[in-house]
TrEMBL record:
PANTHER family documented for this protein: GAMMA-GLUTAMYLPUTRESCINE SYNTHETASE, TYPE-1 GLUTAMINE SYNTHETASE 2
Keyword Transmembrane: no
Protein name: Glutamine synthetase
InterPro entries recorded: Gln_synt_N (IPR008147), Gln_synt_N_sf (IPR036651), Gln_synth/guanido_kin_cat_dom (IPR014746), Gln_synth_cat_dom (IPR008146), Gln_synth_gly_rich_site (IPR027303)
Sections of the chain in a coiled coil: none
Highest rank taxon of the organism: Bacteria
Protein's organism: Candidatus Kerfeldbacteria bacterium CG08_land_8_20_14_0_20_43_14
SMART domains recorded: Gln-synt_C
Gene3D superfamilies: Glutamine synthetase, N-terminal domain, Glutamine synthetase/guanido kinase, catalytic domain
Cited PROSITE patterns: GLNA_ATP (PS00181), GS_BETA_GRASP (PS51986), GS_CATALYTIC (PS51987)
Keywords for this protein: ATP-binding, Ligase, Magnesium, Nucleotide-binding
Names of required cofactors: Mg(2+)
Amino acid sequence: MSGIKHFRLIFSNVIGDIKEMGIDAAEIIDVLESGQGFDGSSIEGFVRLEESDLMAFPSLGSFRVLPASVSGINQPVGIFFCNIRTTDGRPFPGDPRQCLKRALKKARRLGYTFNVGPEIEFFIFKDKDSPFPLDRQGYFDASCEGPGKILGEIVDVLTQIGIRGECAHHEVAPSQFEIDVKYRDVLTMADQVMLIRWVTKRVAEKYGLYATFLPKPIFGENGSGMHTHMSLFKGDRNAFFSPTGNYNLSRIAQYFIGGLMRFVQEFCLVTNQTVNSYKRIVPGYEAPCYISVGSRNRSSLIRVPGYRQGKEESTRIELRNPDPACNPYLAFAVMLSAGLEGINQKMRPDKPIEENIFEMSPGNRRRNHIKILPGSLKEAIEFAENSHFLKQALGPHIFTALLNNKRTEWEDYRTHVSEWEIEHLMERY
């Protein structure tokens, strides 16, 4: 921290917005030891007015230095992600980061660590009021002009702050890009997802452009997902690998998949939390809407990437429904909790499906016992509010706060009169 004059304490509200406090260098040592107080009643999903005082305690292992190019003050800024506690020192049950740590504690009791690697997609537009493509390029096209010219700078800044990307490229839709992040422990990864979104938006702003992680900003084009690769380890051994298992997956991996398939309808409210999320999860745009598992089949909800001999540690599964508008702490927490519940209850997944599910007849899907994800935020709320699993995974505080927030969002959306209604119905009626 030598030479750093300004610091920021960062944490998340219940829906995944970054919140921050600035701290001078003269105060940082005291804050590291004693925490920083703040008014929790002003944070979405935290506390009521009469119980507002909370404390932010920096996590020392999360320290990074934002370069001057994106710090906003033309100087390097030191940042810490924080764990939120009550004034008597207890972990605050409404803190999303603490929610993920609770799930990790359950995994550790079983001897597991949880590693994830998300593929984060996003669009770059002229501004937030003009969601129109700025290029006409597609998947893996060279993109040196328009919004594509800033992708390299985004990756460079992320590298400077210690976030290792495996691959960055143009995606299928015009003006759409993807950053794949190096596999690592889930808590660090959740912090990294928060920073990737923050850095991407800041770099775009430098060029007078607007980056968005909205799942479906353009009608008729692919939406943005956050496919998440995951595996459990016991020490240095990948607990998902078996040389004799189907797809080289162990029984533990099979049970983990079984848990994801059993509870995904109930946790969709977390992994796909906006009304816009459900405009991405429709047939025909590469996003899964049917609950199935496969290997080569990219219409599956859960995909098992091919195993390479000698690379047992890379054995993993890929959950394809999450989108980048989620709160990563809560999303990773419910994924892990569902998988662990699958292991505890020895939930076997349904048989693999390798044919294109989008092209199946409804009767064929019924014969294969293929269920469907919620088709709207309203349906996701209905699955969630009746879910004992989700209440346990999130804790009662976050469970209630999230449901209240999403019910309000649905009601606002339900009563809004859209341009489509004016264009298609006004003259008719």
